[in-house]
Design brief:
The protein is of the alpha/beta class. The chain has 17 helices and eleven strands. Its EC number is 2.5.1.16.
Length: 544
Amino acid sequence: MIESPLSAPPGAPPSGGPEDTAVLPVSPRAGRLLVLVAVFISAACGLVYELELVALASYLIGDSVTQASVVLSVMVFAMGIGSLLAKHLRCRAAAAFGAVEAALALVGGCSALALYAGFVWGAGTRVLLVAFSLAIGVLIGAEVPLLMTLIQRIRRQDAGGAVADLFAADYVGALVGGLAFPFLLLPLLGQLTGALLTGAVNAIAGGALVLWLFRHDLSARTRRRLLAANLAVLVLLATLAAGVGDFERAARRTMYGADVRVALRTDVREIVLTGGEESTPGSFGLYLDGRLRAGGRDAHRYHEALVHPAMRGPHARVLILGGGDGLAAREVLRHPGVDRVDVVVRDAELVDLARTDPALSALNAHAYDNPRLHVVHGDAFQWLREPRTGGASRPYDVVIADLPEPGGTESAKLYSQEFFGLATRALAPGGRLAVHAGAAGRPRVFWTVEAGVRAAGLRTAPYRVGGRREQPGTGRERAPRDWAFLLASRTPPRLGLDARPARRSLTPKMLRDGARAIERTRVPGLPPSTLVHPRYAEAATPVG
């Protein structure tokens, strides 16, 4: 029979009970301080694990409100279970706490890596999210009862005072962990390495507290087993951290193909370029947050369908919201009579790539070298709200919303009634607004966008345009693309195309057919999405 690391030698009296006084290598006052430091570190690590799961699940699955709700509710429930289970371990509090911290360091440290691997290789991301939330929650819930027992073994005090001390250290640690994640771990180390480092800190803190401060509570065999367990966890975490780069490259090859050329994570998104440095048709791919943004033989049709119907009419001044890849600007600049194009984009790194990468800059026809194009780095919503001066003080003939797809909480603000109201305010009399409103296969999302545009005081002309979805570089058709758009203005807009420019594959017949096709999917009576009632998460179920 294999002895548990929590068990005492045969015939030994139980130790570590709440009535015993611990034998410490330091004074009781210093011992209590060290326990509170361990509480502080454990709380910080626990909150980092929680935020890692929320952030990664939001990136991989989308809809951050849903993912945060799932993680938080499951973890709080599991913490209650862990607290109940810890009642049975209080007689061996030191050994139990050491085992819990080693397990928490292993599970929490590896959680982000396992979740990402499940997403890439199809192991059920949602199931893994719930499983890790449960496991981490149970282990975090077991910490406080065990730490309460340990601190009472150093010096007996009233329960209220002990609870106040523990919770104070716990809450301060949670504050530090909550701030360290977005401002330190995420920007400097990334999600995978950040979680692994947090696990290592967790293992070191828990192991040091038990194996040094409470070493007299442990049998020699238990000390050896806990030491071996903590060393094994640290070696595993260090090995995984050393291999994170290779793991990410393998994951990208699985997701994007073998010809990944550029991969970077900015403050806004993940950007991946595939294919050669020359923009051979069908070989190039631009992925933003894992979604193909440009690539395949029909990729140009999206930007043609977004831009050209809105350019029919006066178009001296054009505003593009989003569109950092420069592809919408390419289509705008093909029209004669354009005097100024303002591009408002959050991601400066994407703009730099679009300006300097040989393939992407060739694809956007070197739009960023055109003196008529002006870039503003910032959030489109905030920029529309603020009083503008200089070249941007006058209204625009055309406003083009080339933004991330609606359907989740991240982009809900940019498809709200308030946002469309601000965009309407930026329009000149007779100006037009063009909006990419998602996929035609998600009619509730599309018609919710349309309701928001109408609620802002504009009349709409809906249409859809299709193409082929290909894996860049293979030429293999994977699934049909089906983009849905809105052309809007203060008077009923006329859907059509200017006779110029000639370099486009979009035809008036495609627009007429697309308008009839999208009208057949109309969902009547949908309310608009607003800032205080975002409706895209509830409307995001695809049909067909």
